[in-house]
From TrEMBL:
Bias type Polar residues, positions: 544-554
Protein name per Swiss-Prot or TrEMBL: Hint domain-containing protein
Start and end residues of each Hint domain: 70-180
Gene3D superfamilies named among the record's database cross-references: Hedgehog/Intein (Hint) domain, Peptidoglycan recognition protein-like
Region (Disordered): 1-21, 523-554
Native organism: Nocardiopsis terrae
InterPro entries reported in the protein's UniProt record: Amidase/PGRP_sf (IPR036505), Hint_dom_N (IPR003587), Hint_dom_sf (IPR036844), PGRP (IPR015510)
PANTHER family: PEPTIDOGLYCAN RECOGNITION PROTEIN, PEPTIDOGLYCAN-RECOGNITION PROTEIN LC-RELATED
Length: 554
């Protein structure tokens, strides 16, 4: 399973690499909580980010030295946007970049949610260099890879192809993807094949284009918008006609030719020598990490420039360095809105469960004794667990509670019940924990507030319709405002009901869909910025140092 789609990395938070000693936890995942109610499920997701930052600020200081970042590339690496290749100084949040859906193996245009740039300082990076590949990355930079079978038996009984590796854990069995068919090509031609061929011939001949062709060419070279509008068949026609051998007269033509090849799903690398410019095709869409086969060398070297990495919904992007192209990745607290938020990072000693800090990863729910544990939160833990069970980290599937290691109330009775009944070890998907909300109705919680009604109201707030609960907010009493908020959430996802006064199965399903849709919109629009809200309150005294993957150390 790929990394959880709703994932906030240390780089997203602007944090450096944890100085914690290296470890390789393999025995499972440990659940934690906060000793004081935080009420995060009733707030915007930005409050979760503020909580996590405050937790770190409260329990760490400058002497801890968290000053470097672990998931980045060097200044020379570029990203492919819909308007061509851009450096880290040129690309902006909101630009559209080509990404890889690692589950389907196809490329997709997606918005750049953030451009994370970190100061120039002395670091040790890893250079991978070969005939068809050039990269310079931090050791923990993440790669979406395919894994070749180890034996003939493996080849006959393959595991799912998509895996994740870091630069320092890549092996000779890993294959880096250099090309992928694009999901977003036109299905129907916008332009005729005749026009495409005329554009290609004008481009190849460098003759002055006719008035009919000028709108598609800039200084004799096809515009990016024209290339993006072509079908796969038309891209192939243009490539065959314009430059069948890959040689072109100038840099602009070479850039356009490589852009067209990428959209057609072909691996193509840019070259320049004394003979001019050329785009060399590579029949392999997957490149081996193999010194003998590709002349690839891997070595550590000092580096003093900026490092950077973009954030995209797929967690991947198409990179280019020294003319070679390849897909690469961006490198835990499970919040009530379904986000996994990184703590110390992969392969780091934990500090939250004495006796299990080097053997188990840990994850805090950031909930207090009576805070609601939302379905999104449960699913986030499930996705985190499955991701950590990938071969790269290969943890066991066991999920334990903090109290399984020492005498403590952590992770709270409600969370520990979910540990014991196997809720966290289920595959990601529909969460039945919401079924205890079914049957709640208008009038419940009056006059004695109901925790179940509070859970419904918090979901209404998460879906973006908390104004209907004013002036009382999340009070555990189902009045007309709660009914109005539930109805608004259902309308938000397309329901045509005109009145609702109880929590039916359909109401619950649509309320969860509304929460997911609202969070996706916020992520795409970049609303989860460090300055976008949160009450800034510090965690209670039960919580101590920031610890391993999404955990806090006691």
């Amino acid at each position: 399973m790929p990394r959880p789609s709703k994932y906030v990395s240390r780089s997203d938070l602007g944090w450096g690499t944890s100085p914690a000693s290296r470890a390789n936890p393999r025995s499972g995942l440990v659940i934690h909580y906060d000793s004081v109610n935080q009420g995060l499920s009733g707030k915007d997701h930005s409050a979760c980010l503020t909580y996590w930052r405050n937790t770190r600020n409260f329990h760490t200081g400058p002497s801890r030295g968290w000053t470097d970042i672990g998931y980045c590339v060097d200044e020379e690496t570029e990203i492919l946007t819909e308007n061509g290749w851009r450096s880290f100084r040129q690309v902006r949040a909101g630009d559209t970049a080509l990404t890889l859906d690692h589950t389907t193996g196809t490329s997709q245009w997606q918005p750049v949610q953030a451009v994370n740039v970190f100061p120039a300082t002395e670091r040790t990076l890893v250079r991978m260099q070969g005939r068809s590949h050039s990269s310079l990355t931090t050791p923990h930079h993440r790669w979406p890879v395919e894994r070749a079978p180890r034996t003939r038996h493996d080849a006959e009984h393959p595991q799912p192809g998509e895996h994740w590796a870091t630069t320092e854990t890549l092996t000779a069995r890993d294959l880096i993807r250099a090309a992928a068919p694009c999901d977003h090509l036109a299905d129907e031609p916008k332009w005729s094949h005749t026009l495409v061929e005329e554009v290609a011939r004008a481009w190849a001949s460098r003759a002055k284009p006719s008035p009919r062709l000028r709108e598609h060419l800039t200084e004799g070279v096809p515009r990016h918008a024209f290339l993006r509008a072509l079908t796969r068949e038309q891209l192939d026609l243009l490539l065959r006609t314009a430059a069948p051998e890959g040689s072109v007269p100038d840099r602009a033509s070479a850039e356009a030719l490589q852009f067209a090849a990428v959209l057609a799903g072909r691996a193509a690398h840019l070259h320049h020598d004394e003979h001019g410019w050329a785009v060399a095709p590579d029949h392999r869409s997957l490149l081996p990490i193999n010194r003998d086969q590709d002349g690839l060398t891997l070595r550590e070297e000092p580096y003093g420039g900026h490092i950077w990495c973009p954030t995209t919904p797929n967690g991947t992007w198409l990179a280019r360095r020294r003319g070679t192209v390849y897909f690469t990745g961006n490198s835990f607290m499970a919040c009530p809105h379904g986000y996994v938020i990184e703590g110390r990072g992969l392969y780091r000693t934990q500090a939250a469960q004495p006796g299990g800090n080097s053997s188990h990863y840990s994850c805090t729910l950031a909930t207090g004794p009576t805070d609601a544990i939302t379905p999104e939160q449960i699913n986030a833990v499930r996705m985190l667990r499955q991701w950590l069970m990938e071969p790269d980290t290969s943890i066991a599937g066991a999920v334990l509670g903090h109290r399984d290691f020492i005498s403590t109330s952590c992770p709270g009775d409600r969370a520990y019940q979910l540990v014991q009944d196997g809720t966290f070890t289920q595959p990601p998907g529909a969460v039945t924990e919401g079924l205890d909300l079914l049957g709640l109705k208008e009038g419940d919680g009056i006059p004695t507030p109901s925790e179940g009604v509070k859970a419904v109201q918090r979901l209404i707030v998460a879906a973006g319709f908390g104004e209907h609960l004013e002036p009382y907010g999340v009070d555990g009493q189902w009045g007309k405002g709660t009914s109005a908020g539930l109805l608004a959430a259902r309308h938000y996802v397309g329901s045509g009901v005109t009145s609702i006064k109880s929590m039916t199965g359909e109401s619950y399903a649509q309320l969860i869909r509304a929460c997911a849709r609202r969070e996706a919109e916020r992520a795409v629009k970049g609303l989860d910025s460090p300055d976008s809200g949160g009450d800034g309150s510090l965690p209670g005294t039960e919580t101590v140092d920031v610890s391993g993957q999404l955990t806090i150390e006691r």
